[in-house]
Structure formats: structure tokens, C-alpha cells
């Protein structure tokens, strides 16, 4: 705003006028904005005053027949309009990007107060924006995890330490979810301005992992309690599982046989034929299990060198794309003696 004849003249910034300037015309106006006189401009650019006047004439053709101060003012307003337009466009693009993200995003200030929370985070949290801004996102963290998360956020804001964490949220409806949170600081003029966090709901993944662990625990319990010998071999016919029942039957500890070839548990005369059977069974496409009654007795070799007859059931599985064979063995020495 510039006063002229006791009246305020307001110029609406027009960035298109500034964009029409040549590099030398822009340079002229920038120098005038910085307070240089025409003589100072001529000296800085190494041109004559007449040439400076020529450039002013070109500017007036584009901006209008205005006095020098008003030309400078119009240039300044145009620059402001152009900067604001670029900033708004950038901010609009950023907001569109953040709002379309399937991941929750939170931007806080240096004190940890939320400055921005995207829609995905609000959905994950199950809370409205006002509640989140008033109570803060730390209030969502499960009480048992809150102290750890608060300390992690403190170190991020005050020491600039990035973090990755999995913890629980206690939503406003009382449900508990698991989230994976990654965060780092954002800076302004080199100083920490606050924290930005990316949050993902990993409840389903946690449930699947918990189910896998529970199934593994049940399997381990069954292996430990089963009276039969249960052992597994991989595609190389090397032992990868050896339960307590197998330890009792063969006299070896699991530590002694894991990673060793299955042949060590077979009498020499049976080793070749048994390995051929396992390979043929593994190559089959229709049968994935053979019960004990489906084939004649096999023979085992104890650690003390004693041979013994046993019944065997064999199961073929594919684990992570690799074949796995599990045998359940029962000593039948008392039946054939």
C-alpha cells in the first residue's frame, strides 16, 4: 500500500506481469526494491543512465505509465502474489498427497502438539480431529506402552533421533489395535521445528504372528509329549527336527543329530533304498502322506549299534517353497521278536 495525494492506492498483485519481465528488467526492479538510485543501478550494471531510463520505459509499457515508486510497489506485490501462489499450490499438492495416503501422518510442533493430522490417521485412531488436537496423540497410546513411547518421542524432538516402534493404541471405542510408527524431526532454518510420524495399523499382522507363535508352541508341546519318535528332514535328507521320543528311541540327543544325514539312523543295508524311497515320495504329486500300515516295517539303528524294526508314517509338506518330510516312528521290536 502506497499513499499518494493523501489517498491510499492498493495494488492487487499480478504475478503474470512479473513473469513478462526480461532478466535485465527484473534486475532493474530488484535493485530499485533494494533502494538503489538510477545512478547506483547504472554503476552496478555497468551501463549508462540513458540505458537505465530505457529499461524503465520498457517496464512502464508492461506495468503501465506509473511513477517509479509505484512501479516498484507493483513489482513487489507481484512477487508476493507469485510466491504465495507457488506456496499455496505446493501446500495444496502436499495436502492432497497426505490425505490420499493410506498411512496415518501426524505433524507436531516442538512441544509435541499436533499441527496436522491426516484422514488415515484419524481412521486408525478412531477419533475426531478436535479430540486429537485437544488430548494429543500420546493419549491414544496404551497405558502399558505410554512411558516408552513418550520417551522415544522426547528423544526425537530434543535429540533429533529417528525412531521405529510397534505399540498399542487404546481407541476411544475401547478397542485395542497395534500400530507401527516411524518418526523423525522436521527442521526450519536448521532448527528442529517438530516431529513427523507415519503410522500404520498392523493389528492383522500381529494377530497372524500371534497365531503362528501359538501354533508353534502347540506343535512343540505335542512333539515333547508324543511317545512316538518324530523327526523331520529337508530336501537334502538332513535331519532338522528330532523330538524327545526320537531321542529315547535312537539314544541320540537332538544336538547330536540336527544337521546330520538321515542315513546315520539307518542300518547300512537299508540306507540306499530308504533314501530312494524318500526322493520318490517327494517327487510324487498326488500322495502327501503314507500311514504306518501302508508299507512294510523299516529298520532303525540306535546309537549303541543295535538295529530294530519300526513302523513309519511319513508326511510331505512344502514350507516356504521347500519340501519337508516328517516321519512318525513306532518301535515294534516286541511284536516281531
Q: Would you give an account of this structure?
A:
The chain has 337 residues and is α+β, with helices and mostly antiparallel strands. It folds into 3 domains: 2-96, Winged helix-like DNA-binding domain superfamily/Winged helix DNA-binding domain (Arc Repressor Mutant, subunit A, Orthogonal Bundle), CATH 1.10.10; 101-202, 2-Layer Sandwich (Beta-Lactamase); 226-336, PAS domain (Beta-Lactamase), CATH 3.30.450.20. The protein has helices spanning 15-19, 23-33, 38-45, 49-63, 68-100, 119-125, 129-135, 143-159, 203-225, 244-250, 254-257, 268-283, 333-336; strands spanning 2-4, 7-9, 104-108, 114-117, 163-170, 176-188, 191-201, 229-233, 239-242, 289-290, 298-301, 307-319, 322-331. Strands 8, 9, 10, 11, 12 and 13 form a 6-stranded antiparallel beta sheet that branches. A 5-stranded antiparallel beta sheet has the order 4-3-7-6-5, with helices on both faces. It has a two-stranded antiparallel sheet with strand order 1-2. Helix 2 (23-33) packs across helix 5 (68-100) and helix 3 packs across helix 4. The radius of gyration is 39 Å and the shape is elongated. The termini are far apart. Residues 1-13 have low confidence and may be disordered.
